[in-house]
Design a protein that fits this description.
The complex is a heterodimer of chains A (110) and B (621). Chain A is mainly α and 110 residues long. Chain A is flat and about 70 Å long. Chain A folds into 2 domains: 78 residues; 31 residues. Chain B has 21 helices and 2 strands. In chain B, helix 3 runs antiparallel to helix 17 and helix 13 packs parallel to helix 16. The two termini of chain B are 22 Å apart. The N terminus of chain B is likely disordered. Classes of the chains: A mainly alpha (110), B mainly alpha (621). Chains A and B meet through helix 3 of A and helix 8 and helix 9 of B. Chain B: It is found in: Cell membrane; Membrane. Chain B: Keywords: Cell membrane, Copper, Electron transport, Heme, Iron, Membrane, Metal-binding, Respiratory chain, Translocase, Transmembrane, Transmembrane helix, Transport. Chain B: Belongs to the heme-copper respiratory oxidase family. Chain B: Its main location: membrane.
Amino acid sequence: MVDQNYSTNQTEKDLFYKEKKKEEMKHQVVTFAMMIIFTLIAFGIVMADVSKMFTIPIIIVLAIVQVGFQFFYFMHMSNEGHTWPVTMIFSGIFAAFLTVLALTTIVWWG
Amino acid sequence: MSATATKKAGFGSVLWDYLTTVDHKKIAILYLIGGFFFFILGGLEAMLVRIQLIQPDNNFVSAQFYNELITMHGTTMIFLAAMPLLLALMNIAMPLQIGARDVAFPFVNALGFWLFLIGGIVLNISWFTGGAPDAGWTAYTPLSIFSEGHGLDYYSIGLQIAGFGTLMGGINFLVTVITMRAPGMTMMRMPLFSWTTFIASVLILFAFPALTVGLFLLTFDRLFGANFFDPSMGGNVVIWEHLFWIFGHPEVYILILPAFGVFSEVIPTFSKKRLFGYSSMVFATVLIAFLGFMVWAHHMFTVGLGPIANSIFAIATMAIAVPTGIKIFNWLFTMWGGTLRFTSPMLFALGFIPSFTIGGMTGVMLGAAAADFQYHDTYFVIAHFHYVIVGGTVFGIFAGLIYWWPKMFGKVLNEKMNHWFFWLFFIGFHLTFFLQHFLGLMGMPRRYWVFLEGQGLDLFNFISTIGAFFMAAGTILFMYNIVWTAMKEPKASGDPWDGRTLEWAVSSPPPHYNFKQLPLVRGLDPLWIEKTEGNGKMQPAEPLGDIHMPNNTIIPLIMSIGLGIAGMGIIYQVDNPMWWIVAVIGFIIFFGSMAVRSLKDDLGHHIHKEDLEKEGDGSNG
């Protein structure tokens, strides 16, 4: 009786994890495909030789999105227990961004 | 290795034990010895500076030697004295306060110390090889590019090596606080010193890379023919100032936040009250760190950044006064209605509050961009930053050292001598630096070798020098006290100050595994909760079991020596390419020891349950 209960629980658990893994795999494949597409777009824009003012921002935006994919889907940053790494990465990005912004504005433009 | 075995050990084995240690408590003692040595060295340099300025047109030291003295005084005191002494306090107190058995990476902890020491030694070798760095502790380009001799090369290489060590220490503490807190020790139950250690480590992590980059550029400009700071080749001299201060301003918060943490431990303990406004203290600490990254250009108001940039940085600077003010009032309210005990750590805390407030006030004055054009590069600036660094950081270091001395060495320093020490140091400090505010307002510029007679500067400079002798006398008394205490004072109990936090729940000094069983933390000031609501002892959170501890290793020392040798080779390869051999040998030692460490498994050892049971209950006696 007890054993039976245990085993049904176990199968339910297995099912749950199977479902979850399937879901995760789907995300991985989709993001992987999207990253390849993004890279193709980036190369495509450069090869198409459109104006620089158009090319550079698009490439930068694509790069940022790709970094996000990398962090959240391939490095599992969206999973539980990653609050501290996420906080630290974002504060680091913030400090670096601020520095670059200030330097570009007051040293090279000012 | 039981306690009796270490007691009977000879000098050689004790030395070997310290050279190979990975124990955070012993590394704290190493940091203390290293930091205090450089503190004395920097103090001697300061004394020579003050003797030179005791009278107008003095000829005590030459102009060149004076430049070297001021440069090395600043560099030594910031990088080689204040930071290691704070790291000593962090190492001794933080793991105990959060209920951990060691830091997260004991090997890296040892490596951090040895890199600091080797970096400091490399920097100071310059005294014996034809002149120390002489471009000021900020090493502004282009002066630092054109400075002759190898002084500035020693500066860039020495600080680079020491900087690696500090960066490793910071990352280590971050991981320790995040992953190794005892059961029940949530972030918002952490003692404030552990919080400030954590936040200072965040600042180290984000600020030191700017220094690393700056020093690399300087090294390449000076030694490898690069032109990052040469305008005629398309470089830009102002970039160095930016990089230096992007690091340099967070650096001063790295120095002051742990001192704030010490006072936040000392004041509640000796007021017999919990810290007033704990959560606002945490908030203020985080806010100071956050704002600290946006104010660096207030060191550069006169560079010509333009009125908009100057205004933005001026306002950000003044905003920092708000969280700092929150802290000051919280300390005052902690004392309000408390049962005050005027022990020497408490005296330093009480001396700190008005001194630091004066320094903060002159800081806001300097932060007003328009007024700063008047104060810039005068003794007003000198007075300001000595008020915050000596009145804040150094007072904090001494308060912390005296407070945690029993945890490091098992004895309480002689209180009577410490009271004398405090008063000598406190009076000397104000005598030295208070009048420098007025010297600055009268127009005396900083970094000048001599001043002229009959300009109204004679008397104040004379008094200032007398004050410096008071501080020296106080420090000598403190050193005498250390020796006296080691010989004459009785052994201290685990809890000599009637403490509130976890470090006082273990014996003094603690066993090398810290906690036989990890304690269960039931709230803020966990030991105090057990004293008032329980039986005065921490409840264990786990059954008694084997404890896993890391093995001692000599590799960190060898690795650091390798990097030091490589640094010397790099400095001198411009004179003679044969020095490349030295550099290569150094790098072989460095990467070789890395390889040994990576390829050879070192799984540590276990202290067995049976041995732990034999050693008594391990709590405070």
